[in-house]
Design brief:
Elements: H1 23-37, H2 52-70
């Protein structure tokens, strides 16, 4: 399957997914994102990974939160 064959809002996991991925697959996927991108999995809801669009939103939000911790407001001015 090519990436362009998966719509951004298509369910990746669960009963409505055409991929046959279950909750254990979701947990493995989240763990992989933690390993690769440092995703804070302690504050992550598994619903954040139902679609590609939600995954991108979650990773962007996590990255922005980590960046805000590293660069407190007013420090770079």
């Amino acid at each position: 399957m090519r990436p362009e064959e998966v719509a951004a809002d298509e369910p990746l996991f669960g009963l409505s997914s055409r991929f046959g991925l279950d909750s254990m697959d979701t947990l493995r996927f989240i763990s992989e994102l933690h390993e690769r991108y440092g995703l804070d999995i302690a504050s992550t809801n598994t619903d954040s990974f139902r679609t590609l669009a939600r995954i991108v939103e979650t990773l962007d939000a996590d990255s922005a939160a980590r960046q805000a911790v590293r660069e407190p407001v007013g420090e770079g001015d």
